[in-house]
Amino acid sequence: MKAVRLVAPGSPLELQDVPVPDPGAQDVLVRVKAAGICHSDAHYRAGKSRVHPLPLTLGHEVAGVVEAVGRDVKQFKPGDRVCIHYLATCGICSWCMEDNEQFCASGKMIGKYRDGGYAEFILMPGRSVFKLPDEISFEHGAIMMCSSATSLHALRKARIQAGNSVAIFGIGGLGLSAIQLAKALGAETVYAVDINPRKLGLAKTLGATPINASLAEPVSALMELTKHRGVDVALELIGLPLTMQQAVRSLTIKGRAALVGITEKSFPVAPYHEIINKEAEIIGVSDHLGAEIPDLLAFARSGKLDLSHAITRTISLDAAMINQTLDGLEKFGDDLRVVITP
To answer: Which CATH architecture has domain 151-284?
Structure first.
């Protein structure tokens, strides 16, 4: 089968021919119909986050059709439409049993520590596979498996409550989902912070109040809009020290800043003024949970999560086109989500 793979950090991805994997007893082989290109993939290609072993097929947002199942898999059959939770885990350790499988010692993320979805087929344990309702397209099902799922997990980690105000820093694929999910979970007001007018325009159509950080200092703007109260929840989805600092500084008393974006750099915090005196919290967000995916699919089926504007374009399984897309993500370009349709 054809697969687009990372051969060495800092080098372009390459199209290779690799064997179609054979399902083990508890595995599901999926023919990939859609694979989203995530900003994290640009980090992986650049070597900012370790990918092992190399060469390895990238891609962790995947939906498709079941091609074959292992002998112990009873919940799926060939032809089923499915989407894939991107963590392959043991299912029996204490972390997995408590729905914290992102910390499973033997767990492996597809597209990072095992072959992912930039390919014609992908192999996953049956417990990481979920049926995709007919109402949800493969393209939308794929991007939900990272951008939407991570946004939902972040909002829940931030303990969002009905009536809360929420500031979302970064209106890409995650941000557009986060706006809608925040509203679905009861947020009264959602503020969208970005420097891209097109993305801010989309945020406004979803009911968010846009803040153009290239025209106004966002913390000052948020304080003015909230009558100097600050926001209850801030999500940082970009991965820049500056925006992480802004998310923390935008909080009200007992506010919660959930950090999702990936960066190797630190940012300064004034412990007393920004955290202690407010009893504010900085919360790390790692991945998402398989247990959250049924709720996510329900939001999409009900229309509370509409991804019709989230995909900028689709491309073929072509190394040059994928590398070009990753180049754009590294420059924080106009693309929201680009999806590969093999």
So the answer is: 3-Layer(aba) Sandwich (3.40)
